[in-house]
Amino acid sequence: MGHGSAFLRFWWDQTVRSTFLGYLPRGDLANFRLACHDFGVRGAPVLFRDLSVTFRTSTFTKPARMAALERVGHHVRTFTFNMAHTSQTFLPPLLDPVTGEERVYVYEPRISNPSPVARRKRPKYGSWEMSDMLIKQYSPLFHAATNIPAFIRAFKAMRNIEHLKISCPGQEPAQRYRRCSVDYALISLRIAVERAPLVNLTTLSLLPIHPAGVFYLRSMPGFGTLPNAAKRWAQIKKLAIHMDAWNFESAYGATDHLRFLHEFLSGFSDSLERLFFRWKGGKGPCPFTLDSEPVLQRDRRKTPKRTRFRRLKQMELKNSCLDARQIDSFIRRHRRTLREFDFSETSLRSGTWDDALAYLSRMSGSDDWKRKQVVEEPITPISDGSPMGEELYFGSPQHMKEFLRNSVYMK
User: What is the pLDDT of residue 297?
Assistant: First the structure.
């Protein structure tokens, strides 16, 4: 009886119980919940706090899975949506079965499931002929990606999400200008986020994202956007992006994706407080100063407008190449709010770091702040010895822990 009383005092202490459950491995916690009803109730918020899904054809449509999600979805605080670019996500040209000519498909999102009578009158893909071609020529993954009502149902079940992670790795450079099933899934996900009551959503991570992915996640007229959709994205205060780099100096297609990125980031200019960006692969331009990027100055009529993040407190930019004047302009633009910035792994095309940080010297009245810098020991990434060791670190849970604890997401 004494042992039982001691355990009850331990178990009913919320701080002790939360600490104990937090240290349990995920597999042990799942078994722990099977011991009794109270263990199951107390362990559920910890077990289902972080939920990761790899999107497949039945991810949001299997009845048993959706019923389970509706039971435990309110515990989810961090949701990770994984959908890699593979042969299954590739969409070949749509061919007319009679003439063999390529057909153009104009996508019109269907937000709700129509009744059986309405379904017979109006097919999902606009016309019976187009629907027949898409069903026969495209993989089931495409049809699952365009099932917007299923996405909306899933996100409504996870109404307490605070952090949304999206991971779409593996796009081949040759497919950069072709739409695939991943892009349709991003459209469905964006519409679901805008229509579900995600009032606690404040953090968005795209780790990694292909260059065109931000175009489909950007809230804009059309593509099933609600008039008040911008309010949902205005909740985002913390944004992290790892984007695949490409050849920015090529004459064709070097600027369109940069403009998509500029417009996407501009949509968060009124709300962002912490911002992290990293180019994967080769070095890329600074995405925060694209208005002065030389590659976008060729056509003055299409030069992006200057973006100022009105509440930005912390910024990190990695694996980038820019001019000293761009850094100086960014610091001046955000001098009233910016508290910390990090240009790690960044190289200058022109000018020096003294030129880039000259405004800080003018603000302080001298260069003494340069001599008072505290030299910290750099964090050494855990590598398996392969050339991809560093890249694995930047996309790993360990990096996110350090990132959230020490840098952009530091509270």
Answer: 72
| 288 touches 315 (CB < 8 A) | yes
Report CA dihedral (276, 239, 53, 217) to the nearest 10 degrees.
-120
Q: Rounded to an integer, what is the distance from CA 116 to the centroid of its chain?
A: 36
Q: In what order do the strands lie in the sheet with 340-342?
A: 50-54, 78-82, 163-167, 203-209, 238-244, 274-280, 314-318, 340-342
Of 411 and 367, which is predicted with more confidence?
Answer: 367
- 88, 185 contact by CB (below 8 A): no
| 394, pLDDT greater than 70 | no
Question: How far apart, in whole angstroms, are the C-alpha atoms of residue 65 and residue 191?
Answer: 21
pLDDT tens for each residue of 261-281:
999 999 999 999 999 999 998
Report the half-sphere exposure of 162 (CA within 13 A, side-chain side): 6
Q: How far is CA 336 from CA 140, 247, 311, 312, 339, in A?
A: 51, 35, 9, 9, 9
Q: How many residues make up the chain in this entry?
A: 411
The owner of tokens 């999107």 is 55
Q: What is the pLDDT of residues 333-386, one digit of tens each?
A: 998 998 988 888 888 988 888 888 888 878 776 666 666 554 443 333 333 333
pLDDT at 177 over 80: yes
Say whether 102 sits in a helix, a strand or coil.
strand
The Cα 171–Cα 188 span in angstroms is 19
CA nearest neighbour of 296 among 334, 328, 332, 249: 249
Q: Based on DSSP, count helices (H) and strands (E) in the chain, helices before strands.
A: 19, 10
Q: How far is CA 325 from CA 255, 277, 291, 333, 343, in A?
A: 21, 19, 12, 12, 14
Strand (E) or helix (H) holding 239 = strand 238-244
Judge residue 244's burial from the number of C-beta atoms within 10 Å of its C-beta, 0-12 exposed, 13-18 middle, 19 or more buried: buried
Within 13 A of 258's CA, how many CA atoms are on the CB side?
Answer: 28
